[in-house]
Design a protein that fits this description.
Elements lengths: L17 E2 L5 H8 L4 E2 L1 H4 L7 E6 L5 H12 L6 E6 L11 H7 E2 L1 H4 L4 E6 L15 H14 E7 L1 H11 L4 E15 L13 E11 L2 H4 L5 E7 L3 E7 L4 E4 L9 H11 L25 H17 L12
Parallel strand pairs: 1-2, 1-4, 3-4, 3-6, 4-5, 6-7, 7-12
Antiparallel strand pairs: 8-9, 8-10, 10-11, 11-12
Length: about 325
């Protein structure tokens, strides 16, 4: 596979922008955080082939998920052009239809395009059997399409479980109780590209009722376990060629995401425990500790740089299995 030819890229080593529509809510949010975002008109005047990244957003609160993911995709020296995708077989009831119509595409609209990267988010459906999910058939079509039309796919939480099941027949297992909080993890190989730069012990949020087991993953010679946790289990898994990457937690979460989930569950009458290692002295009225932001920047940056930019062909049409 030919590597990207850097002579086609012009610009400094830092501060390359993320390219998104100026009307997208994330444009205002990221601009106010002093993150370099660029609208379509300005980007089209530059002699740069940006990385094309598709995001299949399965989260119910899509605007919140957009803000979280785009924040980390923008924090690299690379110019990134984002295409948002939604399922056709299930329409979100938590996002204005006007927003979906304006900013999202269906798979049938982009199936003939190639992408340097794809992100498949999590979804609050983990306690259902995969085949019982309304959009399962559509999701499997997208995952199959990604084999030949995407150079590297990053899966998050339930998205990882779904992909491991579809591609490798690895099952998920119900936990005795919800894994909820921020947990310490270690790196199995400090020289691995995806985990390079992480501390010996780093933190990541988890919020899930199911898990995949280490022994099932180890049966697949194509897969590597790059990071794990004593309490949260397997965390970062990837194929040896990095064409598929799996994160079992939610590094993209904001400071208050777990707090909002806790309050939501309690208001529904659910007996959800206080998220572990999150609130100061477990005081739910305190400002939560944001202990994973640096790790999130590193992992998303490593994926964009080492798994996508350094290896995807400059001619995007050369991407294939």
């Amino acid at each position: 596979m030919p590597k990207r030819n850097n002579k086609h890229i012009r610009g400094g080593a830092f501060g390359m922008p993320i390219k998104i529509p100026i009307e997208l809510p994330a444009f205002k949010v990221l601009s106010e955080e002093n993150i370099f975002v660029m609208n379509d008109k300005r980007a089209d005047t530059q002699d740069i082939r940006p990385l094309k990244i598709a995001v299949l957003n399965l989260m119910p609160k899509k605007i919140l998920a957009e803000n979280q993911l785009l924040r980390y995709l923008s924090n690299t020296p690379l110019q990134v052009e984002v295409k948002l995708i939604q399922t056709k077989t299930y329409v979100s009831h938590n996002t204005p239809i006007e927003h979906l119509d304006k900013f999202y595409s269906y798979m049938e609209e982009i199936k003939n395009e190639k992408f340097d990267g794809l992100i498949i988010t999590g979804a609050p459906v983990e306690q259902m059997e995969f085949e019982d999910i309304a959009y399962w058939d559509e999701l499997t079509e997208i995952m199959e399409w990604s084999n030949k039309n995407v150079f590297s796919t990053l899966h998050i939480c339930w998205g990882s479980q779904a992909a491991l099941y579809y591609h490798y027949n690895i099952p998920k297992y119900e936990l005795d109780k919800k894994l909820f909080g921020v947990f310490p993890h270690w790196v199995n190989d400090e020289k691995a590209d995806l985990t390079r730069g992480l501390d010996d012990v780093f933190y990541a949020p988890h919020s899930r009722h199911t898990e995949v087991k280490k022994e099932d993953i180890e049966k697949i010679s194509e897969l590597e376990i790059l990071s794990e946790s004593e309490e949260a289990g397997v965390f970062i898994v990837a194929t040896k060629d990095r064409r598929k990457v799996f994160l079992m937690g939610h590094l993209e979460y904001d400071r208050n995401t777990l707090k909002e989930e806790y309050v939501r569950d309690r208001e529904k009458g659910m007996e959800t425990d206080i998220p572990k290692n999150y609130f100061v002295n477990d005081d739910v009225n305190s400002i939560p500790n944001f202990t994973w932001r640096g790790s999130a920047n590193i992992v998303f940056g490593n994926w964009l740089n080492y798994c996508v930019y350094q290896n995807t062909p400059y001619n995007i049409n050369d991407i294939s299995k």
